[in-house]
Amino acid sequence: MVMERAKKKSSPLIASFLLVFAGGWGMQAQAETGSVFADKGIIVLAAEVSSVNTFNVNLKKVKDPNAPPAEDGLRDVENPATHVLQHPKEAYVGLPKTEFGNHVDWVKAIDDGLLKPRWEKTDPTAEPFVLDLDIVRPVKASVPDVVFPHRQHTEWLSCSNCHPAIFIPQKGANQISMSAILLGQKCGVCHGKVSFPITTKSCKKCHSKPKPADWKPPLSEATLKNPWK
Amino acid sequence: MRSHAGRRLTGGLAMFGLVAWLVAFAMPQNAHAEYADIVINNYADAAGMRPAVFPHWFHRIRFRCKVCHADLGFKFKAGGNQITMAKIIEGQFCGACHNGEVSWSVENCDMCHSGIPGTPTHFHGSTVQRLIAPPYQGLDANKKLSK
Predict the structure, then answer these.
(1) Residue B50 to residue A189, Cβ atoms within 8 A
(2) How far is Cα A114 from Cα A116, in angstroms, rounded to an integer?
(3) Is B66 close to A118, i.e. CB distance below 8 A?
(4) Coil/strand/helix, residue A143
(5) Element (H, E) at B4
(6) Same domain, A77 and A134
(7) Chain A to chain B Cβ contacts (< 8 Å)
(8) How far is A4 from chain B (nearest CA, A)?
(9) Beta-sheet pairing, A145-149 with A207-209
(10) Which range marks the domain in which residue A139 is found?
(11) For residues A186 and A174, what is the distance between their CA atoms, to the nearest angstrom?
């Protein structure tokens, strides 16, 4: 009888810990409650609150974006050489930072002379053929127009990497859309995989030419032909 | 009045809850390797080796994209180059540099073959991976599903 009372007294405390469980382990916590504490009304109520009501289920944030190889989740810690590999953070010391990708501004690192990656496999003196030519692409939507700078690209790549397989070198010959890019075509062959990724913070790196002051977004056909107007 | 047994039960549960809570938050939620690290597992698992992990960041500090993607013929596709150890020791792909001359030689198996067994070929941290809904596959994919 005494035992019974003690259990009842401690039940709110147990419930609070079960709530913590529900946050951390979701379904598992519910299953546990169902089997063990199903006969104690208050506990079941507390733990039955859905675990999806957390803030924000779909927001994936990485705590340590430049984790050492042994903690990166890709490499096997049982593998001896995993612990010999260089740590990215050590390599990035002194390099300019960005908010996305490797969190390194690779283009600026070259421009500032902080990095000098080889252009030829074995010749450290070979220089790239840099083409300083900007291509402006008008954009239908309200976001700024795209300016494609050849300069930054030709510092890393040769013409044959993109032309003619990915981009036909002719005005108006290339249909580009953000959905194609997101799926890994056109700019998305590199951007979103190796070069800077497509996130809200990187839109303006390409969409960089503001629309004229008198620009208005074109009205959609459904609005123009609205029979209820 | 509370019994000793009751207190022990409460204390035990409290400790267990605290430990479980700490463990749940300390555990890695998912992989957080470098952006653009590639796992290549075309043949490795089947051959009883760990999959190879290619760190783009390490290589782009030392070489421009052009060296591998134009001169050495690496296609812009994870797992799209059908790299084998036979090709590497012939001096193709990784073997163009990992030959003991430009960089360390192929006997250091574990330096590349360092991935967790069973990890599929993929680009780590790519935009497609970060999409919440899987990308639309088109009408053909739906037809295949209904068959």
Answers:
(1) no
(2) 7
(3) no
(4) coil
(5) helix B4-26
(6) no
(7) 201
(8) 8
(9) antiparallel
(10) 106-209
(11) 9
What is the total count of domains within chain A?
Answer: 3
Amino acid at B99: N
Per-10-residue mean pLDDT of chain B, 147 residues long, equals 57 55 42 91 97 97 98 96 97 97 96 96 89 72 50
* Domain annotation covers residue A120: yes
Q: Are residues A74 and A125 in the same domain?
A: no
**A225 within some domain:** no
CATH value at residue A142: 3.90.10.10
State whether residue B121 is helix, strand or coil.
coil
Q: ipTM for the complex?
A: 0.76
How high is the pLDDT of residue B137? 66
Residue among A58, A74, A189 whose CB faces B132 most closely: A58
Give the domain B37-130 fold. Answer: Cytochrome C3 (3.90.10)
Cβ-based contacts of A184 with chain B (< 8 Å): 126, 128
Q: Judge if A25 and A86 occupy the same domain.
A: no
Q: How many helices (H) and strands (E) does chain B have?
A: 7, 3
Looking up tokens 């990485």 gives: A62
A12 and A41, same structural domain? yes
